[in-house]
Design goal:
The complex is a heterodimer of chains A (about 400) and B (about 140). Chain A has about 400 residues and is an alpha/beta fold. Helix content of chain A is about 40%, strand content about 15%. Chain A has 15 helices and 15 strands. In chain A, the strands form 4 sheets. A 7-stranded mixed β-sheet of chain A has the order 2-8-7-6-5-3-4, sandwiched between helices. Chain A has a 4-stranded antiparallel β-sheet with strand order 11-12-15-14, with helices on one face. In chain A, β5, α7 and β6 form a beta-alpha-beta unit. By secondary structure, chain B is α+β, with helices and mostly antiparallel strands. In chain B, about 40% of the residues lie in helices and about 20% in strands. A 3-stranded antiparallel β-sheet of chain B has the order 1-2-3. In chain B, α1 crosses α2 and α2 packs across α5. Classes of the chains: A alpha/beta (about 400), B alpha+beta (about 140). Chains A and B meet through α13 of A and α1 of B. The structure holds pyridoxal-5'-phosphate (PLP). Pyridoxal-5'-phosphate binds next to α5 of chain A.
């Protein structure tokens, strides 16, 4: 059992403001310990990593590499299979531009699900434009579950672990098995999933997995790419610069070993340290307790929202968030009004326009959950939604 | 002053000058991609002046009420005057505080009408950047 009061007290923004924050799928709030660790790094250990022999440089390098081990352990990988990036978006771009360009050619097909966030669509569409690959879309049924049929002739499946709109979770194991049987690689966009359930990349057997630190109660500006060792070794570098090289002459360069090969330039060191703190902080809780708490929030929210006239919940949410529409009310008006009364909900297409088009809606309102949310948050939000409707609904 | 002032809500619930624009001199659709607000302006233009406007659209209260309030002001205005109209004029008409999150909703009416006139005059549509005249200070 989680003691939510005690958890809330650890989040300055949640504890101080008494605000109802239901937008953790966009970015999560940060516990005090993460803020402290980042500040401590800057005030006590700040130096660049992997360059310099002085004591501070060593401290910083040790801390940075230590964080890599923490991340690796957190998702069941080996440390050299963890590449630090600046966010989930960059991680996916790295795969598209490095692995994709080296392994895909004109006429090859990759599969994306219709649930995807723009960051797992556009990098592939750029390859479509540049090298002429074909994108095949995996559709959903009315519950928002993927209809996984034939993955033959596909070279890569890029799929989210949890929809950031519908809160549905594709059956990753099934997709990965089918894809591998067809000789395809699988990239999992774990931006949402990573906060809500235990991920073990070895057990899942995915080829690539990407996520951001900031949705995981960590800092912005840091992301992670996991890739299987053989893949990382065979992939060409992504960006060029310092750190990613073995040696440079006037004639050319050799690439560093993995994972440095993919970490050009000064990395987000303080953010990596903050991410480590966030993972350690989250790891003190049991995943089953987190899931139980979250299921309660989702069922409370589903029941509460369903009492609102004209409200339609999209799909059947399983984790992370619930999105809905309300007849005659535009999500931006709704979230603006409830926002002024201290309730943070998100409105729009949530960077998933193809999904919205598939659902036949322009914009939705999303309520998303973090470990610190309570049933009272949901009750307050529901009341504020009712009040906003009374203001807005055409007579 | 509240963004959802009675005036805004009144126009949102009961929009003025709505119509399909059959027989208009020009029709132009524009959208606010971040919100999905959409407006189509149908203008009747004679001797460089607006003689009539109808419009259609979907979206948030600010964008729809904005168009309704703006439409009521258009008759008799010259196209030259409208093409050089500043965003502040629209803000004054709306009479509510427009913050950084909602300015595109509020200015969609101006953007659409300007681009309808530009289309009528055979000009390329202007970009949002020009409509919102982002100050570079
Ligand atoms: C499912 C999903 N994928 C990818 C991303 C992109 O993450 P970031 O913007 O941190 O790179 C997000 C964030 O909104 C997301 O929800």
């Amino acid at each position: 059992m989680l003691t939510i009061d005690e958890i809330r007290r650890q989040f300055p923004l949640i504890a101080a403001q008494g605000s109802i924050y239901l937008d953790s799928a966009a970015t999560a709030q940060k516990p005090q310990i993460v803020l402290e660790e980042v500040e401590k790094f800057y005030s006590e250990e700040n130096a660049n990593v992997h360059r310099g022999m002085h004591a501070l440089a060593e401290k910083a390098t040790v801390a940075y590499e230590d964080a890599r081990k923490t991340v690796a352990k957190f998702i069941g990988a080996a440390a050299h299979e963890i590449v630090f990036t600046h966010g989930c978006t960059e991680s996916i771009n790295l795969v598209a531009k490095s692995w994709g360009k080296a392994n895909l050619k004109k006429g090859d097909t990759i599969a994306l699900s219709i649930l995807e966030h723009h960051s797992n669509i556009v990098p592939w569409q750029q390859l479509q434009e540049e090298i002429g690959i074909t994108i095949k879309w995996i559709d959903i049924d009315d519950d928002g579950s993927l209809i996984i049929d034939n993955l033959d002739d596909v070279k890569l499946v890029a799929v989210t672990g949890c929809s950031n709109v519908l809160g549905t979770k594709p059956d990753l194991k099934l997709i990965i098995e089918k894809a591998h049987a067809a000789g395809a690689k699988v990239l999992v966009d774990a931006a949402q999933l990573v906060v809500h359930e235990k991920i073990d990349v070895t057990e899942l057997d995915c080829d690539f997995l990407a996520f951001s630190g900031h949705k995981l109660y960590g800092p912005t500006g840091v992301g992670v790419l996991y890739a299987k060792r053989e893949l990382l070794e065979s992939m060409p570098p992504f960006m060029g610069g310092g750190m990613m090289i073995g040696s440079v002459t006037k004639e050319g360069f050799t690439a560093a070993e993995i994972p440095q090969k993919f970490e050009a330039g000064t990395p987000p060191i303080a953010q990596v340290i903050g991410l480590k703190a966030a993972i350690n902080w989250l790891s003190q809780y049991d995943w089953n307790d987190i899931a139980t708490h979250e299921q309660e929030l989702i069922s409370t929210a589903t029941d509460a929202l369903n009492t609102i006239e004209g409200l339609t919940i999209l799909g059947t949410p399983e984790s992370s968030c619930i999105s809905f529409t309300i007849d005659d009310i535009h999500p931006h008006d709704l979230t603006e009004i409830v926002g002024r009364n201290g309730v943070s909900l998100r409105a729009g297409h949530h960077c998933a326009q193809p999904l919205h088009e598939r659902l036949g809606v322009v914009a939705t309102t999303r309520m998303s959950f973090g470990i610190y949310n309570t049933k009272e948050d949901i009750e307050r939000a529901t009341e504020e939604i009712q009040k906003a409707i009374a203001i807005l609904r055409p007579a | 002053m509240d963004l959802y002032a009675e005036n805004i809500l009144d126009h949102y619930r009961d929009p003025r000058c709505k119509g399909e624009g059959s027989g208009a001199s020009v029709s132009k659709e524009e959208d606010n991609p971040s919100c999905g607000d959409r407006l189509t302006a149908h203008l009747w233009i004679e001797d460089g002046s607006i003689t009539k406007i109808e419009w259609e659209g979907t979206g948030c209260a600010i964008s729809q009420a904005g168009m309704s309030i703006f439409a009521e002001e258009l008759e008799g205005k010259t196209t030259t005057e409208l093409l050089s109209m500043k965003k502040e004029t629209v803000y004054e008409l709306l009479g509510v505080p427009i913050g950084p999150r909602r300015f595109k909703c509020a200015l969609l009416c101006l953007h659409t009408v300007k681009n309808a006139i530009r289309k009528h005059e055979g000009l390329e549509p202007q970009m949002w950047l020009e409509t919102v005249e982002i100050d570079e200070d």
